[in-house]
Amino acid sequence: MVLHESIGRYCRGLVVLAVLALGWPLMCLDVPGQDARDASVKEGLPRWEAGVGGFGARLPLYRGSDEYKLYAFPIPYVIYRGDIIQVEREGVRGFFHKGPLIETDFSMSGNPPVRDGDGARKGMPELDPLLESGPAVRLFLYRGSRVSSVYLEAAARAVVSFDMDNLSPGYEGLRGGLGLVLASYTVRPRSPWRTGLRVDLDWADAEYNGYFYDVDEPYVLPDRPRYNAEGGYGGWSVSGWLTRKLTDDLSLSLFGKMMNCEGAAYEDSPLVQTRNNFVVGAAMIWKLAESKTRVRMR
Predict the structure, then answer these.
(1) Distance of CA 84 to the CA centre of its chain
(2) CA-to-CA distance for 86 and 105, rounded, in angstroms?
(3) Which of 13, 24, 56, 273 would you label with 258, given CA atoms 20 to 30 Å apart?
(4) If you average pLDDT over residues 80-105, what whole number do you get?
(5) Which of 123, 57, 98 is nearest to 257 (CA)?
(6) End-to-end CA distance of the chain
(7) 174 - beta bridge partners?
């Protein structure tokens, strides 16, 4: 019985790790190797790359929470540059159309589990990890050398939770948004320093907002009234990353994000304790192998 429970906890931990990895994809990490801006020279980029790294971040329990948790774990990474499927900094991407100005693809993201904590959710049920997936459309405004690309991105994702006891999925609503992305900037060609920035406006339906912010009758307290969230505007965020390539196979990345929920559809929930959240983190990435086959990226 003890062995069975240990294996179960281990498997559930792997699921949490996978969802965390999806929730914080490699967009903030500069995987060592030749930059995509230089793909037109020499032989191009490897078809695939693989490696390991260490990842650490301080995250709020959810947007609007004044409680934070520190996550730290090793994370494997794989980059695959296919014609239809790509696994890059932006996460898993499946292209339906890829043109010079417009790309449409299928992307994934996620959110770690939420424990009841000692604050606003004390005594309430724990929230399971979430996995989001759905289509995205990117409109490229600029492509260049020092700035790899600037684009607008509109995305919509269906959200599924995974019960931590039996890993059964449950539908938790729809979420989407509009973002302005500066994918990568470097001061000069071949510089070991790179940076990126994105600004997002978020929205979600009532089912998704209710997953985090509803207060049902059994959990009502004098300072925690009953609440049913509505769908609509979900807040804005600004995120950025800075990377230093240490060697051809090793790089260090720092990243941060500010999230604001002022004016959001769920702002009046008693579970919202702050209007601003700040995320900080770091990652060390080590490339272990790459393919001999090279490809040219647009």
Answers:
(1) 21
(2) 10
(3) 13
(4) 66
(5) 57
(6) 54
(7) 158
pLDDT tens digits for range 237-254? 999 999 998 998 898 999
Domains and CATH numbers, the chain: 2-295 (2.40.230)
pTM value is: 0.81
Residue scoring higher pLDDT (293 or 86): 293
33: left (phi over 0), alpha (psi -120 to 50) or beta: left
Residue 213, SS3 per DSSP? helix
Count of Cβ atoms closer than 10 Å to residue 178 Cβ = 14
pLDDT at 27 over 70: no
User: Residue 273 is encoded by which pair of tokens?
Assistant: 């304790």
Structure tokens at 248: 């051809």
Q: Quick one: pLDDT at residue 297?
A: 61
What are the pLDDT digits (tens) for 138-147?
A: 999 988 777 7
Closest CA to 181 of 166, 195, 167: 195
**166, 199 contact by CB (below 8 A):** no
Q: How far apart are CA 246 and CA 90, in angstroms?
A: 22
Q: State how far the Cα of 43 lies from the Cα of 292, in Å rounded to an integer.
A: 10
Q: CA dihedral in degrees (282, 280, 176, 100; nearest 10)?
A: -50
Largest CA distance in the chain: 68
Q: DSSP 3-state assignment of 9?
A: helix
Structural contact between residues 233 and 267, judged by C-beta atoms closer than 8 angstroms? no
- Please name the residues in contact with 279: beta carbons below 8 A apart, sequence gap of 6 or more: 57, 58, 59, 60, 239, 255, 256, 257, 258, 259
DSSP string of 51-95, one letter each residue: EEEEEEEEEESSTT-S-EEEEEEEEEEEEEE-SSEEEETTEEEEE
Residues 238, 14 contacting (CB under 8 angstroms):
no
Q: Out of 33-37, 92-96, 184-188, 230-234, which region has the weakest mean confidence (pLDDT)?
A: 33-37
